[in-house]
Design a protein that fits this description.
The complex is a heterodimer. By secondary structure, chain A is an alpha+beta fold. Chain A has nine helices and eleven strands. In chain A, a hairpin with an 8-residue loop joins strand 8 and strand 9 (about 410-415). In chain A, helix 1 packs antiparallel against helix 3 (about 145-195), helix 3 runs parallel beside helix 4 and helix 6 packs across helix 7. By secondary structure, chain B is of the alpha/beta class. Chain B has one domain: Response regulator (Rossmann fold). Chain B is built from five helices and seven strands. Chain B has a five-stranded parallel β-sheet with strand order 2-1-3-4-7, sandwiched between helices. In chain B, helix 3 (about 60-70) runs parallel beside helix 4 (about 95-105). The two termini of chain B are about 20 Å apart. The chains are: A alpha+beta, B alpha/beta. The interface of A and B includes residues 273, 278 and 289 of A.
Chain lengths: ~500, ~140
């Protein structure tokens, strides 16, 4: 592969300059030769003609009759001709007329070469025959005006060729720039595309057909790339979304399995506990009957009985979480009345540091639930929110609405607080029975497990949005009843 | 005096019930499994049988079926604690306690009681089935 060092513009300009540097000297020397030759020929022709005419004058006229006449004739040759030297030699007689430097002497032989001899003089020697006398006419013509004209012509030619070379370079650089500009544009856009910027459309304004067609082809390729890129991006997004969904489902599955395992364990323990509680309650009851009112032992046994009843209550809650209540009587209910009643009840218990806001929609569809358990659900969520804000001023918001973007008709119960929020690791365990972040003695860690059990028994779903120091929001999505039904608002089945 | 037969595999549970019911004036016999209980009923009849549901060997529901068939005059109270059980033990997907008690009721139990219960609830349940039997 050739070494890539040349740019189009410099390459074209360089070529033009190189071609001209070869051609122009050749042209200069060629044309110079022709100019010189023509001037020289003209000069020689002129000199010879003049010399011939002068020789004829000597032969025909009486110029040779006297030395004075001869001298006049030679002077005339100097004055009217272009000679700078005229001499007539007859045996030992020499008559000379001369202009210019006195050191010019005619050579013995005729100097018939232009610009030869270094004396700027062109010598012609002609024999003259007059009246039986034989003489030699020696004429010297001044070469300098002709040489000056030749030099002038050559100088002008140099100037012309120099100007031509400059113009050629200017035109060559202009044209090569015009040629390379669209190429550079194509190059810039190709680089942008290569670096991932597909947005830049490729429009090249060039009169050169090949470049125009190349630009059109590249633009078509760019559009195709944009399309392919968009499709790929879309596929990547779909893949990412599907992977995220799969991860989320796997996470939910793991969470569910964990809760089921805990539920299995809790249910087993609950059963054992119930069997243990039967004799405790029955024997204590019996023993109590034997003790006189006011006795210390009676008071102690009453406390045993009260503790056993508390234990019974806890076991019931565990069973709620484990979905083993089983006798949940689901009926169409209007959650609005349940939630409103729950808030009234909770308001009576909550301290004044908690501001309670309600955002209950005017109309929500009926849902299939147990009114008493739904009340438990609201109370447990409110209690949890209150505990999250304990010791601080906080806002508890309870909302009931039809979610705008749910896939199926549904009703959403939203309970949010402005409390301390939770870490993700905590969120993953909040529905486990006895999991609590609160100090010993503040809550059993069963409230949210009961919430989970109730939500499951209603066929509803629960979601948590939280971050440390950013409050917590629980969203419970109940499937709405689509067929017409009458609401059951009784709380008769509340037997926890 | 009405006689009661208590069937439960937990000794403390059946002893506790025996103590409460005897104080309430009933004659109480206790037994730890349903198979032996059927033999005991044959040997000496009882007015009321209180049986647990989830027990090894013969379970409470099957026992009730046989008592209803073999001793139609006996009044039956079914009792059970929490948890989901099937014959191999506790299973999350198995039938629930409530469903067991419902099955017991369907099999012919005259009253059902969820563990743990108070003395008064137990006595009340027994009196109710006896009274109902006299109607």
């Amino acid at each position: 592969m050739a070494r890539l060092r040349s740019k189009v513009a410099s390459l074209v300009t360089g070529c033009v300059v190189a071609v001209h540097l070869i051609l122009l000297p050749a042209l200069y020397f060629g044309v110079g030769y022709v100019i010189r030759k023509s001037h020289e020929d003209l000069f020689v022709q002129h000199a010879r003609t003049f010399a011939r005419i002068l020789a004829d004058e000597f032969e025909v006229g009486a110029a040779l009759e006297s030395a004075a006449r001869t001298e006049d004739m030679l002077d005339l040759a100097i004055i009217h001709g272009e000679s700078r030297y005229a001499e007539l030699v007859e045996r030992d007689r020499r008559i000379r007329s001369q202009l210019g430097p006195p050191d010019i002497t005619a050579p013995k032989e005729p100097d018939l070469r232009f610009a030869h001899g270094g004396d700027d003089t062109y010598f012609i020697v002609l024999p003259v025959m007059h009246a039986g006398r034989s003489a030699e006419l020696r004429l010297g013509f001044d070469e300098r005006p002709t040489l000056a004209r030749i030099q002038l012509a050559l100088n002008r030619m140099q100037l012309l060729l120099g100007a031509y070379l400059c113009l050629a370079i200017i035109i060559a650089s202009y044209l090569s720039n015009r040629l390379s500009r669209p190429i550079r544009r194509l190059q810039d856009v190709s680089r942008s595309i290569a670096s991932g910027d597909y947005a830049q459309a490729l429009h090249v304004d060039t009169p050169i057909r090949e470049l125009h067609e190349l630009a059109v082809d590249l633009e078509a390729m760019r559009r195709e790339l944009v399309g392919v890129n968009d499709r790929l991006q879309e596929k990547i997004r779909e893949k990412e979304a599907s992977e995220a969904r799969r991860d989320e489902l796997q996470k939910q599955l793991r969470h569910r399995q964990r809760l089921e395992t805990v539920g299995t364990l809790a249910g087993g323990i609950a059963h054992e506990f119930n069997n243990v509680l039967v004799p405790i309650i029955l024997f204590t009851d019996t023993a109590l009957q034997d003790l006189p009112p006011g006795s210390v032992s009676r008071s102690d046994l009453e406390r045993v009985l009260a503790s056993a009843r508390r234990a019974k209550n806890i076991v019931q809650k565990i069973l709620t979480f484990s979905h083993v209540l089983g006798d949940t009587k689901l009926a169409p209910i209007d959650l609005r009345s349940v939630v409103a009643e729950g808030i009234v009840l909770f308001s009576a218990l909550a301290p004044s540091s908690i501001e309670i806001r309600t955002e209950i929609a005017e109309h929500v569809p009926l849902v299939r639930a147990d009114a008493a358990l739904a009340m438990d659900l609201v109370m447990n969520l409110c209690t949890n929110a209150y505990q999250a804000m304990q010791g601080t001023q906080g806002v508890l918001t309870v909302g009931l609405r039809v979610p705008p973007s749910a896939a199926a008709p549904s009703v959403e119960l939203v309970v949010s607080d402005t409390g301390h929020g939770m870490e993700q690791a905590v969120v993953e365990r909040i529905f486990e029975p006895f999991f609590t972040t609160r100090p010993v003695g503040q809550g059993t860690g069963l409230g949210l497990s009961v919430v989970h059990g109730i939500v499951e028994s209603f066929g509803a779903s629960i979601a948590v949005e939280t971050a440390p120091e950013a409050g917590t929001t629980f969203r419970i999505l109940f499937p709405a009843i689509t067929e017409p039904a009458r609401a059951d608002t009784s709380l008769g089945s509340l037997e926890m | 005096m009405h006689s009661i037969l208590v069937i439960d595999d937990e000794a403390d549970v059946r002893d506790g019930m025996k103590r409460v019911l005897e104080r309430a004036g009933f004659s109480v016999r206790i037994i730890d499994n349903a198979t032996d209980a059927l033999l005991e009923l044959k040997r000496e009849p009882a007015n009321v049988v209180i049986t647990d549901i989830i027990m090894p060997k013969l379970n409470g529901v099957d026992a009730i079926h046989r008592i209803v068939r073999e001793f139609p005059s006996v009044r039956i109270v079914a009792i059970s604690g929490g948890g989901n059980f099937d014959p191999s033990g506790y299973q999350p997907g198995s039938i629930t306690t409530t469903a067991y008690l419902a099955a017991a009721e369907k099999a012919g139990a005259h009253h059902i009681l969820t563990k743990p219960f108070e003395s008064a609830e137990l006595i009340d349940a027994v009196k109710r089935v006896i009274d109902a039997g006299h109607d």
